[in-house]
Amino acid sequence: MDILLLSHGKLAAGLLDSYNMIVGENDRVSAIGLTDEGIGLFRERLQQYMADKKDRVTLILTDIKGGTPFNEAYNLLLQHPEDIKVVTGMNLPMLIELGMKLEGQTSLSELYADVINVGKEAVSGIEELSQDTDDDIDF
Known about the structure:
Elements: E1 2-8, H1 11-23, E2 29-34, H2 39-52, E3 58-62, H3 68-79, E4 84-88, H4 92-101, H5 108-121
Parallel strand pairs: 1-2, 1-3, 3-4
């Protein structure tokens, strides 16, 4: 199973870089960004990725629902519904969780459900400020 990050600009590459720093490099996690070079080149890179990963199950994470990276991922999902799942609103905690579970025997459907839950749980606000600076912050 592979993970593909798709985004506008360098967000996907930046998330991958942060993931590599925290967890270590994993050749099953890749990133493609839509640049000013245009949609045609983005689509070409995505098609090349899919050709290179033929017959591989892939979980695609995108930045914004309705944006070009999401729309291209959705088109792939329509073509390969058994081999691809798409999640939008990607964040670093969900990527870390996915990366740690890649080596296990978790199915694409299970990873898909897990990553959505982790992504939701990772978003929070700080409701209460602590004046005690000796306490560690729990992550």
